[in-house]
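User: My instructor asked us to take a sequence, write out its structure as tokens, and then describe one feature of it. I'm not sure where to start. Here is the sequence I was given:
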Amino acid sequence: MSPSLSQHAWGQPPWQIDSSPARKPLPKSVDFAIVGGGFTGLAAAAWLCLLAPEKSVAVLEAGRIGAGASGRTGGMVLAESAAGDLPGLGDVLAGLTRILGDLGRACGLSLADACELALPGAWEIARSGGIANSAIEWTDSGALRVVNEVPGGTLNPGKLVAGLASAAEKLGVLIVENERVERVSWGSGGELHFAYEKLRAKKVLFATNGLSLELSGLNDRAHPKLTLAASTAPLAEEQLQAIGLSQRKPFYTVDFPYLWGRVCPDNSIVWGAGLVGAADLGSVEQIDIAAEESSRMFASLERRIRHLHPALEQASFTHRWGGPILFRDSWEPVFDRHPESADGIVLGAYAGHGVALSVYLGAWAAEIMLSRRDLPEWGRIANSG
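Assistant: Let's start with the prediction itself. The structure tokens for your sequence are:
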């Protein structure tokens, strides 16, 4: 993906990615190549170098690191997967905390603090069955109330990308931006072809998203969309108290129409709802959020938010943006060998649960590449819709 597309057509989220990896020439070969410079790819690369510092690792990003799904997620940290708990998955939130802690200690960084990680829990909200004394009492196609509290929290996506990139570089990872992999030739390992160069790797991880389906072997097996989000200007503490968000727990509906959101450290609120497909365009890369369909959806979302509660009637919105999200019919992540070679691993399709899961599974993928762990049954590409 070109930087111009991510910065213009998809809007700009309220955070930035303050990271500029050192420019170095592309080597002829590496032990491990990671295709994709988001949460998954950066976490996997850093974990590889932490566990096996003698190995060479390169992250190859078509645009700027975090320019795809990772830098454009809403920053909600959720446990489990979009399909719920999975056999052998383990504790995702504890794993995220451990991975950030281990990487930070190895690099002299405090990654959890740097990315503003907070895990106060998350609220599931719905239009029926609310708990007694629900903090949330909103009007949205019915009365929205809290129905359950689950493990979860929030973080700053831009700072997580920058933190993981910093840790990876300190551990010896080569991060190459604006270098799109055009194709891969498989033999003993993989040969990655770029516009003017090529790179041989013993093993390749495709930290995939909705922009690289052909490269990762997921054509017709996963479905990309662009998810939409908007953020308000900072609210007064009394407003947060009035709307029930003073505890700063993120929330999402478990019925429809869908709505999710979270309070940021500056008291602004990120809200999200709606998915835009690319039926006639061929790729979510070509979606422009200023176009008619997306503009209409943003206007509808902002009206909904202002009507939720009197304290939100005058809310002003400062940012609109979209980010790619990848689904498969089972809602389980893809985590399997590449269809064309056992020397490749494909990981992605988190269906909106990728903030914690991507880092957690990225480290797991690194351990597989080092022959220290096995692939899970539920991630098989053959199970994709």
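For the description part of your assignment, you could build on this observation: The first helix runs from residue 3 to 9. Try explaining in your own words what that tells you about the chain.
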